Amino acid sequence: MDKVITTALLILAGVVCMIFVFNSVFPMLNRSSEAMVSMAATIDDRMKSRVNIVHAANTADRKTIYLWVKNVGDTRIVSIEESDVFFGLETNFARIPHTGDAGGSYPRWSYSLENDTEWKTGATIKITITYSSAPSAGTYFAKVVIPNGISDEYYFSM
After folding, report:
1. Nearest Cα to 71, choosing from 144, 141, 156, 129?
2. pLDDT tens-digit series, residues 74-105
3. Across-strand partners of 126?
């Protein structure tokens, strides 16, 4: 009879241990799978996103520079104003703040959609970089980084 009681207690202890193991491992596995799904979605978004700076030009007084950037990826790009624009002489460039972040100071950039109502595949935006005074002549570097980290660079002379 005492073997039956010992066996029953060992089985009960084994079940309780399995419950503890399950309660500690299952949440960890669940969080891990959520992280993997999130990472897969981020990688998918980055793989489907691409932009190309197709042209750059400036006005006669050189206070305004235009960059035309085309969405050549497979996804619509949202939150364009959260993109980073780097511009300046190829050896001395800086991040230019968006008009909403510049607080009225110069330089700053804004954008307009050229051939669509959203920045979908095939659509082009025109980025307007405005200075308070004309920058010097030389070879300029422009880089546009969209919110998910995809970027393109362009060199041109003014």
Report:
1. 144
2. 889 989 999 999 999 988 899 999 998 888 88
3. 68, 112
